[in-house]
Amino acid sequence: MDNHEHLLIRAAFKKPVERTPVWVMRQAGRYLSEYRAVREQAGDFLSLCMNPELAAEVSIQPLELMEVDAVIMFSDILTPLMGMGMELSFDPSPKFLNPIKSERDIEALKLVDPDVSTPYVGKILNIIRKEINNKVPVIGFAGGPFTLASYLVEGEGSKLFSKFIKMLFDSPQAAHALMSKLTQMTIQYLNYQIENGAQMVQLFDTWAGILPIDDYMEFVFPYVSQIFSELDKKSEVPSVYYINGGHQLLKAMSKTGATVVGLDWRYDIGIANQLIGKDVALQGNLNPNILFCRPEIIKKKTAEILSKMKGENGHIFNLGHGIDKNVNPEHLKCMIKAVKELSKR
Amino acid sequence: MDNHEHLLIRAAFKKPVERTPVWVMRQAGRYLSEYRAVREQAGDFLSLCMNPELAAEVSIQPLELMEVDAVIMFSDILTPLMGMGMELSFDPSPKFLNPIKSERDIEALKLVDPDVSTPYVGKILNIIRKEINNKVPVIGFAGGPFTLASYLVEGEGSKLFSKFIKMLFDSPQAAHALMSKLTQMTIQYLNYQIENGAQMVQLFDTWAGILPIDDYMEFVFPYVSQIFSELDKKSEVPSVYYINGGHQLLKAMSKTGATVVGLDWRYDIGIANQLIGKDVALQGNLNPNILFCRPEIIKKKTAEILSKMKGENGHIFNLGHGIDKNVNPEHLKCMIKAVKELSKR
């Protein structure tokens, strides 16, 4: 089967579709009791990421339980950084025990063949591809270099990433060196995923939204553009670029070379479509908290987003951010059913 | 002295100024050892808020230490909610022991004369006015009703305010009743501050930025507009409307009736000025983390913001968010000095 026959892939390339495809960020996750059972079996989060059989199993769960139009491999954006020499732990938030403090630390970051540093990721993808037998496409992913660098310099999640912002402006040479190294790693890592069967790839640049446009253009845009330009099989394997809270960066996002721009829930997708819809497809963007509301409300808000897209091609339905662990799975089913019914052409 | 003679007030009303005025959100705060000493004397944060002499003292500290162009009264956006019957504690983050769960809880919220519910606020303002003898204007403030409602329903700070979002859509009548009651309280509270000497007032709607524009127009805009329309002495006492992360709401913010729109650091202030600068003055918007950088960088980034405003009237310099407790006070001085030197007309 040609990748272009998949509904998701056609939507990503803005080709005609019979209805809008739908998947959900963090769809393989804690809101599912089936996921929690497997995670318990694996031991902890990181062990689950590194166990190809179990990671493939939780990746596939939402396909069966939720009838989504894509399977995203179960992993974490920070795992490839272990291969660079970073010591990562989750308790439960991610922490690096050896955060980046100097140019020497940046030089010491290793670029290792992903087959050596993250062999489990290739295996996960191969198992999923074999198990689901092309019923839907498989999505690979990586963290955006700015988002990864934020974690590396802060050593953990942060609200404002003050240490990293300090590095950007006090030591721009170091910041560029770090971004450049992470960019090289990410290109290798995503191409390794494509080689191992990923049929679409998403770059999660979750934290880049803290930057105003000037700083984004200096420190992020060139690197992200390089990543998208150096991906393999660009005519077959579409790419998605997602930022959380990056409204000020919308036009720039559409110029990075990504096939699809992933919108958080704060955007009006109709306005975004007018602004950048000629250049890219759009993914999104229901407020993830709407899934806490009554089914009628979930259906109504889903309908609003679809109607803003006016049935145009080039839309992949998703939440505007990852699904929360406390969502009732029946509510997600309700959203998915609504997308399928209401978007029929 | 007429209020219009103050540099800050002239800038707010877009009148000619000899240079750009500057003050800083949370300028009376933990980054100052002088503040920490007084806070220790008061006992805890809430006791300091409710102690008129000490609260006035910390309010005035940045005028002497930093030579800012305005004094903002020391208080917290949540204190007036205690007068409505809410039990507030700080440990150190704010928590309500009796969060709003039902329409009955909303009905039970009391509207009390601010002179009875928050007498210390009027006293703080009167002491500051007397002490500083109109050297600079005094700024009063309140929380935006959406931001207050978020805290009341969640019971504490939150990233996504899922309980409150659920209320908005599952029980819109309750949400509107809550917004309406908080709006009435806020109008009384701000007019009480104006009566007691506040020469500018700021509405901190910090959390409204989580909403897309449609939801903002339904649940926030009418209430905020009502507040600004019912303020006393509108021709003398300007008002500022601040949202954190509300890029998608910029045009709406400029239509609320506020004299000044407060921008977070993610906006390009030059672009914002083109979009809304005819209708309102702008306040902002240096990235607060720039204060962690070297003095040359602080000066350079300050100059960039001033140059984006091209020396036009209608600009109040500020950070794009509150100053962090770990900032070196010398770095803030450097920013203030740069604003004063570089903005001379």
Which helices and strands occur, and which strands form pairs?
Two copies of one chain form a homodimer.
Chain A: H1 7-12, H2 33-42, H3 45-49, H4 52-66, E1 71-72, H5 79-83, E2 88-90, E3 94-96, H6 103-108, H7 114-117, H8 119-132, E4 138-143, H9 145-154, H10 162-170, H11 172-195, E5 200-204, H12 213-219, H13 221-229, E6 239-242, H14 250-254, E7 260-262, H15 269-276, E8 281-283, H16 295-309, E9 315-316, H17 329-342
Parallel strand pairs in A: 1-4, 4-5, 5-6, 6-7, 7-8, 8-9
Antiparallel strand pairs in A: 2-3
Helix pairs in contact in A: 2-4, 4-8, 9-11, 10-11, 11-13, 15-16, 16-17
Please explain how this structure is put together.
Two copies of one chain form a homodimer. With 345 residues, the first copy, chain A, is an alpha/beta fold. Chain A has a single domain (3-342), classed as TIM Barrel. Helices cover 48% and strands 9% of the residues of chain A. The first copy, chain A, contains 17 helices and nine strands. Chain A has helices at 7-12, 33-42, 45-49, 52-66, 79-83, 103-108, 114-117, 119-132, 145-154, 162-170, 172-195, 213-219, 221-229, 250-254, 269-276, 295-309, 329-342; strands spanning 71-72, 88-90, 94-96, 138-143, 200-204, 239-242, 260-262, 281-283, 315-316. The A-B interface holds A 160-163, 165-166, 169-170, 209-214, 245, 247-248, 265-268, 271, 287-290, 292-294, 297, 301, 304, 321, 324, 326 and B 160-163, 165-166, 169-170, 209-214, 245, 247-248, 265-268, 271, 287-290, 292-294, 297, 301, 304, 321, 324, 326.
